[in-house]
Amino acid sequence: MPVSNEEFRRALANFASGVTVVTTVDSSGEKFGLTVSAFCSVSLEPPLVLVCIDRSTRCHHAFGESRRYVVNFLSESQRALSERFATQLTEKFEGVDHHSNPEGLPVLDDAVAVLECRLRNEYDGGDHTIFVAEVERAAVKGGKPLLYFGGEYGRLGD
Questions:
Q1: Residues linked to residue 119 through DSSP beta bridges, in sequence order
Q2: Which CATH number goes with the domain that contains 96?
Q3: What distances in angstroms separate CA 30 from CA 93, 132, 138, one per listed residue?
Q4: Number of folded domains in the chain?
Q5: What does the DSSP assignment read for 74-108?
């Protein structure tokens, strides 16, 4: 008997993770971003990471069009950004401190670390698409990361 959605969600809530906001632009230059819990490193050589994006999100198309994305690792002071980018709000960047990288992608200013990536492969992941990208630039700004565990935000040492 397969695991139920509820059992699966309850089990996954016991995996602690950092919180990321992944950003990109579509072919018209419109900025998109969303809070992503499905992020991980794939390879050191070459440096590859992946994000999984729900096919039903408003921004899904932009990741394939742009062929680039930025992974912003949030700091413990950026909980409000995580919540903002997890909504269906259309003007997510309004009032948010960010800048554009040389490719025109939005980069969050106060993130703990930032990975600027070029898409290499897309894979079917059920109701998600798995976007695997090569990291072209990485910046570590420092600070303490925002964590997520058991359906709640946390901090190191909690």
A1: 133
A2: 2.30.110.10
A3: 11, 22, 23
A4: 1
A5: PBTT-HHHHHHHTS--S-TTTT--EEE-TTS-EEE
First to last CA, the chain: 37
Task: Give the closest residue to 24 by CA, choosing from 56, 68, 73.
Answer: 68
pLDDT values of the chain reduced to their tens digit, one per residue, 158 residues: 788 988 988 888 888 889 999 999 999 999 999 999 899 999 999 999 999 999 999 999 999 999 999 999 999 999 999 999 999 998 999 999 999 999 999 999 999 999 999 999 999 999 999 999 999 999 999 899 999 988 889 887 75
Backbone angles phi, psi at 64, to 5 degrees: -70, -40
Give the integer Cα–Cα distance in Å for 152 and 132. Answer: 27
Neighbouring residues of 33: CB distance < 8 A, sequence distance ≥ 6? 21, 22, 23, 24, 59, 85, 92, 93, 106
Please tell me the number of Cα atoms within 13 Å of 60 on its side-chain side: 13
Quote the CA–CA distance of 5 and 7 in Å, as a whole number: 6
Residue with tokens 């930032």: 114
Domain that holds residue 40: 17-147
Q: Is the residue at 26 inside a domain? A: yes
